[in-house]
Amino acid sequence: MKQATKISDQPASSSPHSSAVGGQPSAIGHRRSFVGHRFERYGLIVILTAFTILGLLYDFTVPVFEKPDELKHFAVIQYIQTHHQLPVVREGVYKPWDQEGTQPPLYHILAAVATSWLDLSDFQEPPRNPHYADDRSFVWRERGNNNLYLHPPGETWSTNPVVLAAHIARWLSLLAGVATVALTYFLARIIFVDGDRQPSAPDNRPSSFIIHYSLFIICLFSAALIAFIPQFLHVSSAITNDSLTVTLSAAALVVLALVIKRGGSIRDAVLLGVILGLGAITKLSMLYLWPVTGLVILYDVYRRRAWIDLLKFGAIIGGLILLLAGWWYWRNWLLYGDPTALAAHLLYRGGALDPRPTLTELWRTEIVGLELSFWAAFGAGQILLEPWLYDVLRWIKYIVLAGMIIGVIRFVGSMRSTIHHQQSVDSGQPSAVNARSPSFIIHHSSFIILCLLTLWTAIVFLALLRWMQITPASWGRLLFPTLPALGILTAWGLAELGYFVASLRSHSPQPPFYGLLSLLLPSILVAMLLSLSIIAPFRYIRTAYAKTPLVDESQ
Asked: To which H or E segment does residue 378 belong?
């Protein structure tokens, strides 16, 4: 058992970042390592800066309350800020917060605190646009009257505290979005660079240098891929609890990855308890992380044979969740007879669907809208891209899936080669490691983390399908808690596919530019998403909300 553990914890000698002849990097290698780490750090800063600038652009381009459920979320914020208590939903009594009054309130409380210095007591629901057609057919067409509400010419934050408060609430979401992008990068680094032990510095060979730093660039690509999804920018600059939900999901995945990588500790249990507790009062979808956390803790204590830690970690995590979130679920039980308040939530949505659609019917009618609104459906979901753009984006999942399958096959081959080499060394027989099956997964634990990310994505997707059977909810943003996982899986899958395609055209085990070729596909996707994110506010959003010029009454 110890021998197997030792083998699995060592980087496979046939992995793409193998370097340093004899384990001793040259002075040139050390200098390149220093330059590479500076590039990595500045690369992350550039991505976060670009995301922030684009987020502000998406904020100022869309009028307040025009993004999904913004007015309802703001009504909750205003009520908490003004009355210092949570709103109550009553059957047959309309309030501007609608079903959002039953949502877990952490984001709304934070926004109420951030806007507490503003007087929002005069807030009223703005008049609706009588010509707005609430049609979510997800069919692209040129159309006017995209605004849900009527906006007077003087609607500016300099004269209206409500508008300023709305932008502050949006900036709170944007701050959470910045944290999500950074956490995605750190999660990728734990997987591909090992978190605790970085791969040895490359020697002065061009092939070693390029292949080594391709791992760090993949981490940056993982962050960039989610940062430049137009819909994520749209949601991250909205008045919504979705952005904070994604951040807490990313934070939980980072801690779980560290538990898998280096073993759990009391500190990890405390962090998980705090994150899951805050998540439980942010959005109900965060509850799906509970079984995932339990599975990781169980795996960790089994691996370390430290069964007493199962009780200790469980008590710490459960106690903190109860302390941070228990009060809200108890309040719901007293008010609605339901700790989750889902029954009250559905009252404002016309109740549960009856009859409920089958999964086949959902797949035929709702999946298209789910996919479109995952990439880009601006405003309240009615402003779309041209159809051919969605056709291009639709192929991404198939390409990534192919790359992931290739990556798993190459990882298994790399591990087998490493184990065979170790057994030969132990027996005193010379054996060469097969260098033709390299893998970007440098440790066995990294593969376990990638499996965890895949599991989390599948759980959220299946849960959303179940929710769509209960109520119309084909919104791609409801899949955003999986974005950190999807960004990493996408970057890894595309890199593996590019590396594999390059290897088919070469007879050399590891030519110098394998590393560069492996980055070609993720580079193309990042460039495409970045271009689309820059163009969208001007090509689609600004034109949709352009004010109609005033005409003199005599004309």
From this structure: strand 377-378
Is the residue at 290 inside a domain?
Answer: yes
Q: Does the bond joining 130 to the residue before it have cis omega, within 30 degrees of 0?
A: no
Phi, psi of 378 (to 5 degrees): -85, 175
pTM of the entire predicted model? 0.89
- Which of 325, 246, 102 lies closest to 238 in space, CA to CA? 246
Q: Which amino acid is at 338?
A: D
- Of 486, 522, 535, the C-alpha closest to 230 is 535
551 domain-assigned: no
- In order along its 555 residues, the chain shows pLDDT tens digits of 434 433 344 444 344 444 333 444 444 444 445 445 677 789 999 999 999 999 999 999 999 999 999 999 999 999 999 999 999 988 778 889 988 999 999 999 999 999 999 999 989 888 888 877 665 555 555 556 788 888 887 778 888 999 999 999 999 999 999 999 999 999 999 998 864 444 444 444 444 455 567 788 899 999 999 999 999 999 999 999 999 999 999 999 999 999 999 999 999 999 999 999 999 999 999 999 999 999 999 999 999 999 999 999 999 999 999 999 999 999 999 999 999 999 888 887 777 877 888 888 888 888 888 999 999 999 888 899 999 999 999 999 999 999 999 988 888 877 776 666 555 655 666 544 444 445 566 678 999 999 999 999 999 999 999 999 998 888 999 999 999 999 999 999 999 898 888 777 655 555 555 566 778 899 999 999 999 999 999 999 998 887 766 555 555
Give the phi and the psi of residue 248 in degrees, each rounded to 5: -65, -35
Q: Which amino acid is at 176?
A: A
Give me the domain span that covers residue 457: 2-20+28-125+156-544
Beta bridge partners of 128: 149
Does a structural domain hold residue 143? Answer: no
Q: Are 407 and 496 in contact (CB under 8 A)?
A: yes
Domain count of the fold of the chain: 1
Is the CB of residue 502 less than 8 Å from the CB of residue 517? yes
Question: What phi, psi does 128 have (nearest 5°)?
Answer: -75, 150
Cα angle, residue 443 at apex, residues 246 and 201 outer, rounded to 5°? 100
Q: State whether residue 524 is helix, strand or coil.
A: helix
The answer to whether position 497 is within a domain reads: yes
